[in-house]
Design brief:
The chain is α+β, with helices and mostly antiparallel strands. Helix content is about 25%, strand content about 25%. It is built from four helices and seven strands. It has helices at about 1-25, 40-50, 60-65, 165-175, and strands spanning about 30-35, 70, 80-85, 95, 130-140, 145-150, 155-160. The chain is extended and about 80 Å long.
């Protein structure tokens, strides 16, 4: 009987410790990345739109360097596919296809989804290719904060996306699910 009481006290103590830790743990989180890009806009866009370049920064490729990837088509153009097979269950099997390539400054407003505007004043004498420091942070409250610094000038924008998708956006996304090909 005394052993049973000791076991119950230990279990009760562990539960109490867990509850105390849960009360003292920070409930918010944020993800922040910072980068300095000293390249022309077109060079950066051409690099990012290439799926093959994802091998250089994809967390999935980093999780399994032995993943087998098959590319089909012309990279950076609609119709290009990347298929992969991995024995690592966190990477698994899958495929992605470029459906549309839209540069951020399209003249067709419907092809762009603006979340906010962050203008920064640059001096006219600034040499081409001068570095721009970009910091963005996304937190638990679905707030995106963007900070841009260049040539001693700073611009900031905060975008609150906690309203979710509009009904029309949900319908469009749902209609696109029929196009998914799961292997």
């Amino acid at each position: 009987m005394q052993i049973l009481l000791i076991v119950l006290y230990v279990i009760g103590g562990l539960v109490a410790l867990f509850l105390i830790v849960a009360l003292l743990t920070k409930k918010d989180y944020s993800i922040s990345r910072e980068m300095e890009i000293a390249a022309p806009k077109q060079t950066v866009f051409d690099y990012v739109k290439s799926i093959r370049n994802q091998e250089n920064y994809s967390v999935w490729v980093m999780k399994d360097p032995n993943v087998k990837i098959i590319y089909t088509g012309t990279d950076g153009t609609p119709g290009f596919t990347s298929s992969w097979v991995s024995e690592n269950k966190n990477v698994g099997v899958g495929e992605q296809e470029i459906k549309k390539v839209v540069e951020g400054e399209s003249t067709v407003p419907g092809e762009c989804t603006p979340l906010g505007i962050c203008d920064i004043q640059l001096p006219p004498y600034l040499p081409k290719g001068s570095p721009v420091k970009l910091t963005y942070q996304y937190n638990a409250n679905q707030v995106l904060e963007v900070d841009v610094q260049a040539a001693g000038n700073t611009a900031k924008v905060t975008i609150d996306r906690n309203t979710g998708l509009a009904p029309q956006e949900i319908a469009e996304a749902a209609s696109g699910l029929g196009e998914l090909n799961v292997s």
